[in-house]
Amino acid sequence: MNRTEFLRKNARDIVQKNARVAMPECWDTIEQEGTIAERKAKAMAYLFDNMPIYIGEQELIVGSRTMYGHRDEFLDKSDMNVVVMPHYLSEVDKEEFGGVNGEFYSITHYTPNFGRILNLGIDGVIKTAEEAMAKQNSQLKKGWLNAVIISYQSISRWITRYADYAAEMAENSCGERKNELLKIADTCRHVAHNTPRDFYEAVQLFWFESLATIVENFRWINYGRVDQFLYPWYNTVSAEEAQQLVDCLLCKMYDGADIKSEYFSSQQEGQLNITIGGVTRDGKNAVNELTFAFVTAVGRTRFPEPEVSCRISSLNPPEYLRKCAELSISGLNCMAYYNDDQFVKSMAAAGIPVEDARDYAFDLCQDMNIPGRGDFYVSASVDMAETLLKTMHRVSDDISFDGLMAAYKEDVAAVIKERIEEYNLKEKAIREYVDGNPEFLREQIKSGALGGYSAAALMSPLPITSALYDNCLESAEDLSWYGTVLPDKGCMVAQPVVAVNSLAALHKRVFDEKRFTLSEVTKACDDNFDGYEKMRQLLWTAPKWANDDDYVDLPAKEILEFACDEFLKYRTPTGGRHLAGIHQPHPVSSGWYLSATPEGRKSGEPIPVTLSPENGTMLNGPTAAFCSAAKIDPMKYQWNFCVMLQYFSSVFEANEGADLFASMLNEYFSLGGGQHQPNIVNVQDLKNAQLHPEDYKDLIVRMWGVSANFVNLTKEVQDEFIARFENL
């Protein structure tokens, strides 16, 4: 068993779990002096100074989160061992923000630029913060910069503890492992303060910094363009050594597999997405030797995480897509593919500077982001199916289908306006607070215009993560205070397929065939089709999305593009755009809260992922599904767009399987299609895995933006996934 195989086995078996200890409940910094940011930084310093040090057998890249924590009322009750942070908020702090506790708040879907820490080094971050603090008059901002200094000094001490421990281990070792431990000690001692001298040190510093952001955010911070920010150091070692280090890094990226939530089951609460390929900021081919090293390492380690987002540009060498396709058809269902040419064009057309548009990467849910430049996480959303039900309740039976569409658009526009105004008020209030006018926020909370958690970002600043964003240190503004260079946000056009299938069913059965009145269908939905089974069956057998049927696709195009256009009409208080994304994650849990809908779906049943077909309704194969999706103008969306399809693995079992997949993807992209997430499995394996999970530990599936080992999912989620293969 070689090193990669050994580390993979240990990571899969969660050997490192034995190194984790519970955080002492007595730790807190509530009574210590300083601003909220400074007291949070001191709380993090407790962790970095006291977490046990763990170096596993044969590890070359070291560093682990070795403390687990507790639940908190702010988080979903299914989240276990996620929050590892001493308390730092006082009761006075909470009262300041409406009496709520935002102590453990983070949106988590950030994509920092880890290249900043490689180019600055830890001492460089501290120096930059010190220089900025000397120019500041605001006590809030001075305290925040001091929090950066406190945090990074404690990270430096933490890394030095690893250096000391490796040196101590070397004294009791011999042979090649002794030399490796001495190298680890030297590497850690250097990167505890300085910029890396070679690829080994670059990978190690990146890994420590990524763990530090997880300590601060608790979970879900994404890696970004790993083949770009690490590449300047790639040629400082041999290709063989570089490949070994990348293999080791991917094994470390699965280090937190036991730190998870019950809903996601096997999904770890760590960084989850890497982005490779595409083009550089100056528009050149970005695929390099390190890109291929990551592809190779993904194939060797075969973990469900990190998800791999493959940017596919017309400038990339064909071999890149083919090698990625080989991984997909082998059942490595953590791969996603993006039409680089189209997404760059769409973002630039919306007003994102083209250099930034070319530099996009992703957060956990495949939402577009610009690493270290923007925080595009969702500002507003519109639930298209729920809004359609609202429209059905307010219109009369004598309305035409065109009239229904017009009324539906009015309601969609009204919801978008309301949600944008809610978000903009929150951003304005936080900006006012940071700029020295706290009264505006207090007034909005007191009046009920804003909930207390609207100010949670002020209760849980992110000095470690913010240092990885351009301008945050220089301007002394936390990224969660809207301190990023790009002020844009992303918006979600949610429940799209349920909505468009419902429109098609109404169009067919109510307006064309006149089998029912609109009010009869509305009443049946209100009653969850109890007593209306014949109607439900007729609605369910009406034309459905993803079959290249203009009867469904053209109204879908009309209403979804309308929603995207509505979002783009608005600006944030700092002048950013509300970028449009068509996006629906969490197919099972999102279905729990959606009542019965006019396409024949009952209340509580799962809903499809974004623009994927509803289970059992894709009748004409993947090419037809791609054609349906490609009818939506790709210039209308910038933030998210997903077509997830299921394939029987037997389709690709011939020798030309990778070429077939690559050809199919290229054809879809040539039509203007934006993105594809494939699931390629043997369905019998899924069913067998439910009966004999011990024999299918490495069976990987993609649920939406996230992947997991199938056997670790809940039965309900497993059943929904198997149902995706009905009628294929």
List the helices and strands and how they pair.
Layout: H1 3-12, E1 21-22, H2 36-50, E2 67-68, H3 91-96, H4 115-133, H5 139-171, H6 175-191, H7 199-217, H8 226-229, H9 239-252, E3 273-277, H10 289-301, E4 307-312, H11 318-329, E5 335-339, H12 340-350, H13 354-357, E6 361-362, E7 368-369, E8 378-383, H14 384-394, H15 401-434, H16 438-447, H17 456-459, H18 463-466, H19 472-475, E9 489-494, H20 496-512, H21 518-526, H22 533-540, H23 550-568, E10 578-582, H24 587-592, H25 621-630, E11 640-641, E12 644-648, H26 657-670, E13 675-681, H27 683-691, E14 700-702, E15 707-709, H28 715-723
Parallel strand pairs: 1-2, 3-4, 4-5, 8-9, 9-10, 10-11, 12-13
Antiparallel strand pairs: 5-13, 6-7, 14-15
